[in-house]
Amino acid sequence: xxxxxxxxxKILIGDGAMGTLLxxxxxxxxxxxxxxxxxxxxxxxxxAYITAGADVIQTNTYGANYIKLARYGLEDQVKKIxxxxxxxxxxxxxxxxxxxxxxxxxxxxxKLLGTMEEIKRSFREQLYxxxxxxxxxxLLETYYDLxxxxxxxxxxxxxxxxxxxxxxxxxxxxxxxxxxLLPDVLQRLEDLGADVVGVNCRLGPHHMVKSLASVxxxxxxxxxxxxxxxxxxxxxxxxIYNNHPDYFIQCAREFRDEGVRLIGGCCGTTPEHVxxxxxGIKGLQPLQEKTPTTKQPTIEIQExxxxxxxxLPEITKKCHTIIVELDPxxxxxxxxxxxxxxxxxxxxxxxxxxxxxxxxxxxVSNIAVATLIKKHDIGITPLVHLTCRDRNxxxxxxxxxxxxxxxxxxxxxxxxxxxxxxxxxxxxxxFDVTSFELTKLIKQSNEKGLSFSxxxxxxxxxxxxxxxxxxxxxxxxxxxKRLEKKIACGSDYFxxxxxxxxxxxxxxxxxxxxxxxxxxxxxMPLTSTRNAEFLHNEVPGMxxxxxxxxxMRAVAESRGESIAEGLTIARELIDTAMEHFHGIYLVxxxxxxxxxxxxxxYIQKKLRKRALLSQ
Length: 615
Fold this sequence. Notes:
Layout: H1 3-9, E1 12-13, H2 18-24, H3 34-37, H4 39-52, E2 56-58, H5 66-69, H6 78-93, E3 98-104, H7 116-132, E4 137-143, H8 146-159, E5 164-168, H9 182-191, E6 196-200, H10 205-212, E7 222-226, E8 232-235, E9 238-241, H11 247-257, E10 260-263, H12 271-280, H13 312-318, E11 321-325, H14 335-346, E12 351-354, H15 366-375, E13 381-387, H16 393-405, E14 410-414, H17 435-448, E15 464-469, H18 476-489, E16 493-498, H19 502-512, E17 519-523, H20 529-538, H21 546-557, H22 562-580, E18 583-587, H23 593-614
Parallel strand pairs: 1-10, 2-3, 3-4, 4-5, 5-6, 6-7, 7-10, 11-12, 11-18, 12-13, 13-14, 14-15, 15-16, 16-17, 17-18
Antiparallel strand pairs: 8-9
Helix pairs in contact: 4-6, 4-12, 6-7, 7-8, 10-11, 11-12, 14-23, 19-22, 20-21, 21-22, 22-23
């Protein structure tokens, strides 16, 4: 009897978590490597689940692919690890249980571990290893990204006629992170050739049953459910799941009542949970008919009101625009800061960028500063930096919702300086996502009104996302490729690192002439020769030409006015930048906003002169 025939006749019980048992025994390393180093321990786990009542077990290969094994330097062991895993599982099964070759999802919200082509190559390698060892079926589990699962499902279906189980994972009950409802997702997977479709991980039994209530019985496939033991608690640096196996007796009946034919466990589950599932379905026949609850009601997504004025990138495509970086203060006296913002507005500046604890040093919250600028009706656009360093996905989502609610829509998405360079070198960096992924998530809320988890925000956001760009590199062509990748993620415009060479500005124009995305050229007035040497030698992403450093050094040696020379150099750079780009990004040194005010006035004077000449 094969797996699908068995599922047609009765409800089957799957096994539970492998990692949970190993972790409880003190194992805290690559679980898949243990197929080679501790095969007996892996076999004992399989046997414990079979003894508890599991009809189906899965190989210890969830992360046994090239990309994930590379974290441990084991990327060359893919074949050995997968082959050993199947042999161990078969030894434990003794033809009394079906053996599924497990392949876990690679791409998710938090980290993009590889391009789709890399994922496909990695997937195929693992798949072939499992097929060569003669598994009874394939289990594709814990896929948050539907496109990834559809891609790899097509690969498997082309390569084998073995039963394929596809389990998706949800952050929110009933909906994937891209906003697609669970019934629609499972229908698509069935249409693509999956024999069993279902859900696993992330949710406990309650929310998983609730999610499946809206799912009709598949026409040709069967339903599967592998819930976590519970919602986890966090104690002493470890995730702890509530251990109430008897609860799973009732849960098994509820899953059966939703039409599930294959019921197992995921994170936190043990052989006791599997025994409870087996006891829960005793005497129960598979459900033959089901009337699903109505699909989740469609939540109306409100469109944003039509903007009264153009956004920064829209303005820049039409005429010259000035952005000035003015970092929030490191203390609680904000009056001088607001005075600087007002002076910049009077000098004709269009927007002020507000850093998010730049150089990993605490400053007044930029969302508070932006709110003060709006409250005082200064009339200048706040462009708020948002760093991935200080906030996890929860904090980033909340921060963005707050910004939208306050009417602050211009954002610079940055990965962030490492904490070790700042005032708190022992602080922890988060980096749940990079600036690339953050940009994509922000655009998801713009286009679909969805949060990072796929939950409706009930309104589309209207963020314009700027990105950082460093042209001060040896290989500008490679840097432009990175810029193009950011555009593909949704970047609306770019702010460059300060450039101190007219030739570099011209070179940048040539390298980006094929792009329509606005680029603001960063220009920072130097204040002294020490300032110039510090920027050149110690600040990542900044390089000064020898000529510029020589000029600042010569002024200092002759006891001349260093700031005046720094402004002269900045004006020369502005002249070149305005010939080739519409966007000028002035970086204020040491809160000396008087310097950026003077440069802003210089730009406005040039623009007025141009206007007169064109009449």
